[in-house]
Structures are given as C-alpha cells and as structure tokens.
Amino acid sequence: MSNTTSVSQISPVMATYGRFPVTLVKGKGSYVWDNQDNQFLDFTSGIATCNLGHVPNAVKEKLEEQLQNLWHCSNLYNIPNQEELAELLTANSCGDQVFFCNSGAEANEAAIKLARRYSNKVKGNESPTIVTFMQSFHGRTLGTLTATGQEKIQHGFAPLIPGFSYLPFNDIDALDELNSIKPAAVLLELVQGEGGVIPANQVWIEKIAQICKENDILLMVDEIQTGIGRTGTLFAYEEYSIEPDVISIAKGLGSGFPIGAIIAKEEAAKGFEPGSHGSTFGGNPLATAAGLATLTHIIETNLLDQVKVISEYLDSQLQSLKEKYPFIKDIRGKGLLKGLVVEINALEIVQKAITNDLLILTAGPNVVRILPPLTASKEEINEFIIKLEKTFQSIEKGE
Ligand code: PLP
What we know:
Blueprint: E1 24-28, E2 31-34, E3 39-42, H1 45-48, H2 57-69, H3 80-91, E4 97-101, H4 104-122, E5 130-133, H5 142-147, H6 151-154, E6 164-167, H7 177-181, E7 185-188, E8 191-192, E9 198-199, H8 202-215, E10 218-222, E11 246-249, E12 260-264, H9 266-269, H10 285-300, H11 303-324, E13 328-334, E14 337-342, H12 346-355, E15 358-359, E16 361-362, E17 367-370, H13 378-396
Parallel strand pairs: 3-15, 5-6, 5-7, 7-10, 10-11
Antiparallel strand pairs: 1-2, 2-3, 4-12, 8-9, 11-12, 13-14, 14-17, 16-17
The site of pyridoxal-5'-phosphate has 15 residues, from α4.
C-alpha cells in the first residue's frame, strides 16, 4: 500500500512540460512580470493566444460584467453570448454554423468527427479516412495526435486511431494520391506552426481545393494558431482565396480564456444533429463573453490594418538582422507568426533571450518562433530587435 502521508520531493504537477525557470504572475499589453517583479517583453503571446496583449481592457470589462450574471448553465439552454459570437464568426467567414468547445484539440476532434459523420450519414459513403500532412500539429487527444504528422507526438500511444493517411506538405505531385485514397476530408494548417512556421504554397493549396471540390472531399483548415488575425487577415484561408468547408479555431479567440470552435459550411454541418456531439463547458457564458469581446474589438478597431503595418515593419527589421548574422538562414511565416530559421540551436537562443528579459519560442530545433501580440507597437518591435540582437551577441561571444 502506498503511504500517502510521506513527504515527497516530486512536483505535484505532472512533468508533461519542459518549463523555463520563470514564474509569471502579472501581464499587461506586451509585457509580463515574474514573482520577483522583473518585467519581460512577451513575444510569445501565450503561444498565439493573447492576441490583444495581456489583460486587454475590452475583454476584461465584458468578462467582469458576465461574472456578475451567469457563469455556466450547460448547453441545454440558449446562451445569448454564444449565439452572438456564432453570428459574428459566420458573418466574418465563409462558414454558416458554429460548434463551440474548449480548446484547439477539441476543435479538431469535432472537425474529424463531423467529417466522418458527414461522409457516413449524409453522403452514405463508407470512407472514414482523413488526410493530413507531415510535420503538422493538430493536438494531443488520441484523435488529434493521430491526425498530427509527427512521430514524436504519437510515440508511445499506439494503437492510434485507424483511418488517417499522411501526405508530404507542399508537395503537389503527392496530391494525386487523394484520387486513390478518396478521403472523407483533408485537414491542414495554412502555416504549419509547431512544425517549423512553414507557410503552404498558393499553387498547392489551390490544387487541394480543386481536388476537394471535384471529389466531394471536405476541405478543413486548422486555424488554431493562424486564426483570429494572427496572419494579418481574420483567417489565413482568406489570403489563399479558398473557401474551406470547416475551420477550426481556439487560441486567440478568447484572449486567454479557454474556448475553441469549428465553423462549418451549411452542407458540412449537416453531419451533426442533436446528440451526435457535445461538450459540457463548450461555449459557456463566460467563454463566449471573452470570445465575443475579443472578436468585436478586432473588428471594430480595424486592428488588422495595424497588424499589416507592424508585421511589415517587423519583417524589415528581421531582414536587417539576417544580413548581420549569417547563422540566420531564412525568415518564414505570415503576419505576426514569424519563424527565424537558424543554423544554431533555437532553444539556446530562447533560453538566452530570457536573460535579456525577452520571451520567444522555438518551433522545432532550428526555428525561433516570434509571436507578438497583434497590438504590438513599433516601439515594442524596436525593443524586441535590440533584445534579440543582444541575445545573438552574447551567444556569438560564447557567454
Ligand atoms: N492545432 C494547431 C495548429 C495548434 O497550433 C495547436 C496548439 O498549439 C493545436 C491544434 C492544439 O490546440 P490546444 O493546445 O488548444 O489543444
């Protein structure tokens, strides 16, 4: 029998993350503070989540208001915030109906379930296969880690879910395989985030969209990292001039309050009917208050115009750094989702940046991922470049 009263040295929190030695207790705009009151410039945005910066007033006020009224009531009753948010999402996308959940993985899980059920119940087609792409990242549930095209994410979790096929990303010739696989759906990221900040090629995407249309295959885009303005448009698919059947979103939608959703075209949404899918917390009054306030703020303040200007400025500054530091091999990404491809260890840069009061991320071993809030100012970009350059200099000196 285990002795539950014995003093243990192990952390009570499971070791699923390799954490940096920083304890954050406060945030405002582009900055966070640790428990020693040290201030950091946060260009991670909680991994593309705090798109309006930390504790944005527009969202805080609406959350405070909702806190006074109703926190939770279940999806057995109508939820006005949920309906308003669904209206706003469908009015500003090519989709017609929304299902709400609590995270990115749950959104993709819903997309996968919708595709299978649509294929099975609406089309009367037996094909349950979902095609995804190598280096993709779609989440950590058993379904979405199976969808993820990375062995390291799947390792140890066999048996995986049957009915997934993987094709190489941005490989136009490999798309011929879609004709023999005849999948129910294709699920892809328009900029692979975790996989190394790799944007999809326009011609490749157009070909996928064409094959999907001609063969009645659902085109599903995972906009969990790219969506809600991150790439400079509300959804990255807008930049590719395609119309997906299903869009999954999460991260930036709630400004840090957990929320996820899929937006589906009317035809695809027929895959679900009462009882076929659900979530206790999904779209509850608090979460949808946060989502509604976030999206309303982005739209009403024309924030995306500013994102275009700031991201071009960030590009130009990163290009200047690339000219100075030969270990920077490439600058990739869209809008304010940027990746610096480096010949040195990206994690070392991220760790060293912390000592210069700068928070940034990796995306694989050789890519430094930069995710400023969409509200970042030119002055904050300048401060970022100074801090990043200081970091590079200390690495070059071997400090
Ligand atoms: N899909 C993409 C593209 C992501 O970037 C992520 C998270 O990083 C997910 C899905 C999973 O989202 P969550 O961690 O909210 O489950």
